[in-house]
Every structure is written in C-alpha cells, then in structure tokens.
Amino acid sequence: MGELADDRALLGRTSTAERVADILRTRIADGYFRPGERLSEEAIGGALGVSRNTLREAFRLLTHERLLVHELNRGVFVRVLAVEDVEDIYRTRRLVECAVVRGLGEPPYLLGGLEAAVGAGEQASEDGIWTGVATANIHFHRELVALAGSSRTDELMRGVVAELRLAFHVVGDPRRLHQPYLVRNRVLLESLRSGDRDGSERLLAAYLDDSREQLVEVYARRVAQP
Fold first, then answer.
1. Residue 109 buriedness (CB in 10 A; 0-12 / 13-18 / 19+)
2. In what order do the strands lie in the sheet with 75-78?
3. Distance between CA atoms of 38 and 175, rounded to whole angstroms?
4. pLDDT < 50 stretches in the chain
C-alpha cells in the first residue's frame, strides 16, 4: 500500500469520505485494485490515514456506483461485471453519446478537447504505450459527451466509464481493444469538424455497436475461464 499512501496528500486538511472515494475510484479505474480483489480496511485506512468509519462511508459510495460489492461475512470487493452488465453499459453509452451528437445544434462545434484526445491516442500508439491509447480513447468519449455542456450528463458518463474500465481490466489487452478505434476517432472528429451532424451520429452508432460486439465476445470468454 506504499503507492496508495502517496495519495494521502490529496485528502488535504478535511479528510472526507467523498475525497477518499475519489482516490479509490481513480485507483480502481487505473487497475491498481483489480476486479474481484478484496479491499482491506486496515491496509487502505492505514495508507490513507483515515478512520474506519470514513473508509466504510467511501466504500458505501462506491458500492452505490456499482464499482464495489459487499459480500456478507467476507468483506468488500471490486466488482466483477457480468456480460449483461457490459451490454447494458453500451446501451447506455449509445443512448447518451448519440443523443449528444444529435443535439449539437449548428456548427462550428468546440472540438479542442476531442482534438487533444485524438492526438494523445495517436502519440501513445506511436510510442507503443497501449494503456495510454486506452486512456486517450476514454477521454475522447468523455470530451464528446462534454459537448452537451451538461454537468449532469458529464457525471453520468463518468460513472459509465468507470464501470467500463472494470471490463477492460478483465480483458487486459488494451492494444487489441483500442487500436482499431484510433482511426475511427479521427474520422469522427473530422466529420464533426465538417459540421455533418447526421453523418457523425451514424458513424458513432456503428462505432459503438462494433466496440460492444468486440468487447462482449472477448469478455465472455475471460469471465467463463476458471
């Protein structure tokens, strides 16, 4: 837990359950805590320097977000998604992301965040840093949703992406999962830049359908393994 102890400074002077939850959420998203792993109250509380009650409240918040699961008499574990969960996440993504593009209004659109995410993914690919490609791809979709200018939609997408990363960690092959979408991110960006809102929505819908099919196929095989 030495690395986690470095996060203690993020708590500041007012150590709250929400801030602890933010740290743990980030660590889960980064794969520091893996799906199926039991979270030790003693080790995590000691590393972060927080009370057991504060930590338990943070666990409760993350359980509500479906990132953790409490098992009676066993403890708290990072959630392992069912295949049906992955499919439902993609249904939600399709509803939200396509609706954002559909509701953009008249061009030009503010695409700086998308451009930065595409560039970061392409650079990470050139450097062979496939976890960086995965992170850039996630940023691309969060920036896409941010075009709606809605804090509520941003919050919804944050939760969806956090759950989705649980599936990515189980599959554990970021190059296979994300490399095919580098070019598609660029194509979607250029479509939005041209102001073709309807065409962009069609591209995005096909993109998400293909991504869902690919991930579900691989994920189902992995979770079926003993």
1. middle
2. 38-39, 75-78, 68-71
3. 28
4. 13-14
The answer to whether the pTM exceeds 0.90 is no
Label residues 46-73 b or e (16+ Cβ within 10 Å = b): ebbebeeebbbbbbebbeebebbeeeee
Confirm if 29 and 57 have CB atoms less than 8 A apart: no
Note the pLDDT tens digit of each residue in 2-20: 677 776 665 654 458 898 9
Rg for the chain (alpha carbons), in Å? 19
Q: What CA–CA distance (Å, rounded) separates 202 from 213?
A: 17
Tell me which residue has tokens 């960690």. 169
Residues 6+ apart with CB under 8 A from 88: none
> How far lies 217's CA from each of 89, 93, 210, 221, in Å?
15, 18, 11, 7
Beta pairing class for 38-39 and 75-78: antiparallel
